[in-house]
Design brief:
The complex is a heterodimer. Chain A is of the alpha+beta class. Chain A has helices at about 25, 30-35, 45, 55-75, 90-100; strands at about 10, 20, 50. In chain A, strands 2-1-3 form a three-stranded mixed sheet. In chain A, a hairpin with a 5-residue loop joins strand 1 and strand 2. In chain A, helix 4 (about 55-75) packs across helix 5 (about 90-100). The longest helix of chain A is centred in the middle third of the chain and has 17 residues, at about 55-75. By secondary structure, chain B is mainly α. Among the domains of chain B are: about 30-150, 5 helical Cullin repeat like; about 550-645, Ribosomal Protein S5, domain 2, CATH 3.30.230.130; about 655-735, Arc Repressor Mutant, subunit A. Chain B is built from 30 helices and nine strands. In chain B, helix 3 packs parallel to helix 6, helix 10 crosses helix 14 (about 290-300) and helix 21 runs parallel beside helix 23 (about 460-490). The two termini of chain B are about 80 Å apart. Chains A and B meet through helix 2, helix 3 and helix 5 of A and helix 2, helix 4 and helix 5 of B. Chain B: One of its GO terms (biological process) is ubiquitin-dependent protein catabolic process.
Amino acid sequence: MAAQPRETVKLVSAEGFEFIVDYKAACVSNTIRNMLSSQGSFTETELGTINFPEISTPILEKICQYFYYKLRYQNSTARNIPEFKVAPEEALELLMASNFLDT
Amino acid sequence: MAGRGHGLGRGLGLKIEPFKHPITMDPNYADKTWKILEDAIHEIHNQNASGLSFEELYRNAYNMVLHKYGDRLYNGVAAALTRQLQAVAARVEAAQGESFLKELKARWDDHIKSTQMIRDILMYMDRTYVTQQHKTPVFQLGLDLWRDHVVHHPVIQQRMLSTLSDLIAKERAGEVIERSLIRATTQMLVDLGPSVYEADFERPFLAAAADFYAKEAQAFIASCDCPQYLRKAERRLSEEVDRVKLYLDASTEAKITAVVENELVREQMRALVEMEGSGLVAMLRGDRFDDLARMYALLRRVADGGLALMRQVMGDHVKETGRQLVNDPERQKDPISWVSRLLEERDKYEAVVARGLNDDKTFRNALNQAFEAFVNLSPRAPEYISLFIDDRLRKGLKGASDADVEAVLDKTMALFRYLQEKDVFEKYYKQHLAKRLLSGRTVSDDAERGMLVKLKTECGYQFTSKLESMFTDIRTSRDTLADFRSRLATKGTDLGLDLTVQVLTTGSWPTQGAAKCALPAEMERCCEEFRDYYLNAHSGRRLTWQLNMGTADLRAQFGSRRHELTVSTYQAVILLLFNEADSLSYKEISAATEIPTSDLKRSLQSLACAKGKNVLTKTPMSKEVDEGDAFAFNDKFSAKLFKIKIGTVSASKEGEAEKNETRHKVEEDRKPQIEAAIVRIMKSRKTLDHNAIITEVTRQLQPRFVPNPAVIKKRIESLIEREFLERDPNDRKTYRYLA
């Protein structure tokens, strides 16, 4: 294991907005999890900061919301899980990001 | 419902195509991106990844795949890895001697680490391109390339194998070696895939082991005795198992043990088991439980016939020693020691099986078979066993605790189980029991009954019912006699002597024909008295006197000495004659007593010829009694004891004539049993051919005796004569039951 598990991770959007999320939440994305746990010392592992030059701020925000949404409900057995609302104009970009992040 | 008639639906595997960028691409885009990635891969390979951005590399790889450059990327990676690994191979090849394995291990560790990193940044390609194109995932690709370019590099491959073999050979020879490197190397081979491990290491390793142990087995067998060899083989086996645990793959354990078992045990097992002076036979002789256990444990590993061989050799040995024992002429003279010797033998092998052979049932069976085979070799075995029990129940009980007696009797029962002619045993047992009961020689009623219960559980009710009625007779006789005596007392009759009568049920006892003899008047009167009493009490019965089985106590005066003699009824009758005359010829005695010749001779013999008990003198002096002899009262008779018991010369062991007689009786008794069996079988089967009848009859009578086929044939013929059966007119070999 490369870095000791961090509490939080900083995600930076294309516009330079920083989102600080829990390590656990960030790991909902397989890509991010790999980035943080890969062998060797990539800059991401060392700094705990990941730049996403191709993801815009609103999309990254939506993604962070989804991380927590997923974390909250993935093992839930509750019947009425609220729908995760996505605005139609965001949908395409979000889809691309989710493909990129393997979420 | 949702999908019916429509092409779209969530359940129908809708695939979302990656979004296609509408902008036209820089034509050099792929080259540029690949350059970045290639440099990164190079850096990673040199363990110099810090400063690289995972996100950037991932994004670049992502975009390449997205823009249909997956092929390029994949092949590029493969080519880059190949180039690197060729360089690695050269470095490893350069490392000589001890450092070779170290270098190999270090390179391998690095390679694994870098391949993992490369896999991570190419994750997107693995996820989409590789699965769609059915290519080998990146990590596996790294392993495969390592296998092809490093492990299968001719020099490395050869050197790796020889280094490993050398190290293992050194360890087998007792040297200490660096195990962790071997462990790492074999682990590497396993990681490359089980087939790689098998082909590149395991197979040659096993072949070398087989070779090594074949030679070692030769050397051992030439230089060690069997126990030493076994110890060595055992140690080798455990060493190999340890070796597998320490630095080989677990899957090898079964294979290498198979090799060692084959070379050290299976190939040599016959030589081992039959080894002169130290093999199985010697172990059995010497009660070497540990060695036996070792041999057992090793031979058990040999699936095809290891234990079977051991069983066979043991069985043969037991049979052979048993046969010698049974036929030993010295022992045959003394039935008691004959049986005790057999019991010892059985104890010994019981211990062998329990302590040396893991209580193996198959061995116990083999043992039983061997015992059965040799015990029945002696036609007198049933008689001897009965005699042995007789002896135990007469005097063996004195001083011995109940538990001990039980134990001995239980063991004897085990011998009894081996007997094929159980009916013969029954016959003898009955005789011996009758003697014990009538002479009041049974020491413990409980022990007798215990024995009876054992026989009953062994052979069933039928076997013991007569024996049980014998006991009942003795008990009722006791009551009858007490009643008779009190009757006499009330009547005031004095018989002048003390009469004890035992009333026996005809048929339950092994009685010979009631031999008549002329009783002296006072005895005759007693008999009459009892007869009157008994027939009054039980009307419709018939009372015959079995004088040949009675005893009498006489008081006699020899000069000035008085003695009390315990003699048989016949002897008493003879002795009473000498109240009137000092000397009588054989003919006179015979005429006066009317005792049958053989009994008379025997009685006279024990009165006149037994040393220290010769209350009569015989002229001429000789051991045998002849019809021309004369007898005189021996005035000079003297003995230390006041009470003297004069036994009849009816030795415990049967004479030849008696033996034949018993034999004959047994044969006679068997006839109805065989006939009954035949009828039973035919009644249910209606028709049956000859051989089937023989088999069936033999099977049914097995628990009691093994009938002779010739005898069965005779019985069948007799049954045909009596129209129980008939021959099938079409097939002479088939019989039919006639209702």
